[in-house]
Amino acid sequence: METTTVDVLVIGAGPAGTLAASIINKGGLKVRIVEKEKFPRFVIGESLLPRCMEALEEAGFLEAVKAQGFQEKFGAKFVRGDEVCDFNFTEQFTQGWNWTWQVPRGEFDLTLAREVEKQGVPVDFETAVTDIKFDGTNSVTTIIDKEGKESQIKASFILDASGYGRVIPRLFNLDRPSNLPRRKAFFTHIKDPLRNNYDEPNRITIVVHEQETWIWVIPFSNGLTSVGFVGSPSFYDKCKDLTTEEQLRFLINSEPNIKERFGDKEFMFEPRTLEGYSVTTDKFYGDGYVLTGNVTEFLDPVFSSGVTLAVCSSQLAANLVVKQLKGANVDWEEEYMQPLTSGVDTFRTYVMAWYDGTLQSIFFAKDVKPEFKKQICSVLAGYVWDKNNPFVYRHDRAVKALSNVITKCI
Ligand SMILES: Cc1cc2nc3c(=O)[nH]c(=O)nc-3n(C[C@H](O)[C@H](O)[C@H](O)COP(=O)(O)OP(=O)(O)OC[C@H]3O[C@@H](n4cnc5c(N)ncnc54)[C@H](O)[C@@H]3O)c2cc1C
Q1: Which one of 36, 218, 312 would you pick to mutate in the ligand 1 pocket, going by the greatest count of ligand atoms within 8 A of its CB?
Q2: Are 139 and 133 in contact (CB under 8 A)?
């Protein structure tokens, strides 16, 4: 069987994979990406957070993304009935980026993949990893291309950025269930000619439909808007006898905040469903490999944290891979697992507080002190590693304490 040798094999050409490969390549190592799909391919996860811009900048991707003319995003608006809570990233506590983009992911991911190729990293599209054998930190990976031809890649290190493919956790039984309840998302892209009557497109809107069910509205620069419901699987039972398109129309027409804007507008594809997407693994690293992006843990879409955690975990991991392969010692637990987990845990607190209503009581309260709102705004911008922010370093206590004060004042 044909065999090639690289320093680092990256599995997956999503944002986590291309970002990591770029940094490893800049670090002077021989790196190659293997990607199962033909690009552009559809993937959900279209609203970015400002913190991800730092990672895109380090990889040298920013200019290429800017050139695509994607919709700029300056904030997030939360709506419940006629109550509104607006977060503008220019009014945040942490120093950093105050804007980002709303992107159709097929085009965004293709842009990053083309850019990493330009930087000199080969990307094998339509080629899947099927097996990995480790010998200490060295590995031999079997791949299969679209013609069914198998070959092997010898690597000193593997960075698994295979997203929902979860290559290493599946091959080595590392998966474990998330502690979040099972939820189901139901979504499509919709023609949105009325958008300027309702909203400025330069931010996303999250509509609370019922306490545990919400809707995302993410306008793109191409005149389409991504709209999706997220709720418990049983929420959808009320329309289960309808066709897929009728179900989404029924749900859109049952929510006054989006009914007029989207009720009769054209769907660009048959609505899709994703269910039970929250998963995690025992450990994010091992001898000769590290997991980044969605493979580590995907929590929930409500705060658009997925791509940001994907690229930030890759940014951190890729720099550590370079450090290790250049001969320095890396303490993966302390230098990777702990910082990554602390960011994920901050988001976890906000996700849980969103669904149990605590966060909604804060967002829709009339008189939240501007300094608290700024601190929360930084979390929503993805700055979940800023230990100067009390809503980061004491995330659980800060959210509960503020909600208690608000509840007592009502
Ligand atoms: C309903 C829903 C809504 C979401 N909304 C948002 C949002 O608004 N904002 C946000 O930031 N995130 C959102 N996310 C999360 C987002 O989808 C992911 O976090 C993000 O795509 C992770 O990027 P990644 O690079 O880790 O993985 P991916 O983008 O999934 O890329 C992984 C790549 O690996 C490839 N691959 C898989 N298996 C193999 C294999 N065996 N061999 C080779 N290649 C392989 C895949 O083809 C894929 O291209 C949402 C998620 C869900 C479920």
Answers
A1: 36
A2: yes
